[in-house]
Known about the structure:
alpha/beta
Amino acid sequence: xxxxxxxxxxxxxxxxxxxxxxxxxxxxxxxxxxxxxxxxxxxxxxxxxxxxxxxxxxxxxxxxxxxxxxxxxxxxxxxxxxxxxxxxxxxxxxxxxxxxxxxxxxxxxxxxxxxxxxxxxxxxxxxxxxxxxxxxxxxxxxxxxxxxxxxxxxxxxxxxxxxxxxxxxxxxxxxxxxxxxxxxxxxxxxxxxxxxxxxxxxxxxxxxxxxxxxxxxxxxxxxxxxxxxxxxxxxxxxxxxxxxxxxxxxxxxxxxxxxxxxxxxxxxxxxxxxxxxxxxxxxxxxxxxxxxxxxxxxxxxxxxxxxxxxxxxxxxxxxxxxxxxxxxxxxxxxxx
Length: 336
């Protein structure tokens, strides 16, 4: 019998949440030496050099603070570095490479995982736990609402005060975070405080908005999805509506554990989404599936019609396009 994801209600301990904050498997082998700057894009080679030098400093064990000695090289670094650039220019490759060469303790997570972690632990416990890290890498930095802005501004300020080094990637410059999602001008002070923590470095390259999405494969029939789920090892099968309702009952920090032991995800009757809350939950699930390279088989609409045209023209456009790209790649993998 296939696995029913809608029957799963995982409990995730704080220790597990923290232990899983490492680069996803697809970025486990990457290093600075394997990054290949594009010809004609000097900013890529420049940022590589900056990060290699920062990595050399962070490779040294952290020294205890003392009023009487000179500052260590790590203490003279900017509190963080922020890599801004379009999709596909190697930001995550570089971020993971910095994590790999740095001495511990260290942490790697997406921005969504970080906000979910703080939500699961509470601010006080999160600050206490994260202040022990030498380096925290945050992939896909983004602000979705005013609550995130205040939360993350407060968190990063306390981490910087504790001597934690930060590194982040984003498709949006720090002073543009939140635009199109909420009245960013109302939170300008918080946003400026966030940007003040980082040495901002732009990585140029072909912008993903000028590249078409990969072609979505033809959806399967319901019967074919159910058959595949019944015959493939460790496969799940759920109705699309049941699945997204169930996701609404789980904290997003549990979506990784939700997929434990699943080798293929089957979803029947995929429909167009018009509800922002449901869509954003599916984005998080897509990220967790992509991190784990879990193939997808589905029936219903083609995946490139998952998000409504209004959504793809709104403030979360980048996030939805990233999710579509990942889901389509997983659906192609599911056809093998």
